[in-house]
Amino acid sequence: MPNGVAAARLDARTSGPSVADVSVAAAMRAAGTPWREAVPVDTGGAPGAAVEHAMAAVRPWGTAHAPVFRRPCMEPG
User: Fold this and answer.
1) Which residues make Cβ contacts (< 8 Å) with residue 22, sequence separation at least 6?
2) Which of 5, 27, 76, 77 could make a disulfide contact with 43, Cβ separation 3.0–4.6 Å?
3) What is the dihedral of CA 2, 4, 5, 6, to 10 degrees?
4) What is the reported pTM?
5) What local confidence, expressed as pLDDT, does residue 66 receive?
6) Over the stretch 15-64, which tens digit does the pLDDT of each residue have?
7) Distance set, CA 47 to CA 2, 15, 53, 59, 74 (Å)
8) How far apart are the C-alpha atoms of 40 and 68, rounded to whole Å?
């Protein structure tokens, strides 16, 4: 069964060329093999909790220490 977000999006779709529904999503999930580094994120609860969990997975050092890349400033001419 697709997770909460996927199921809600599939249920809310309007008609179109795709015939994908919850059963197609479930079949894709069953057939696929997740990569080793994958981190499951529960999206069935509060959105803030899901974001916090996902951010901790991709930025374990926290957002306060995220690298910032700035372009050098040059005068025209």
Assistant:
1) 1, 2, 7, 10, 11
2) 5
3) 20
4) 0.44
5) 64
6) 778 878 888 888 888 888 877 888 888 888 899 999 988 888 887 766 66
7) 17, 27, 10, 18, 42
8) 27
Angle between helices 22-31 and 4-12 (to 10 degrees): 140
Residues 6+ apart with CB under 8 A from 66: 59
**Structure token pair of residue 64:** 């306060």
Query: Which DSSP string corresponds to 8-60?
Result: HHHHHPPS-S----HHHHHHHHHH----TT------SS-HHHHHHHHHHHH-T
Residue found by looking up tokens 């529960």 in the block: 42
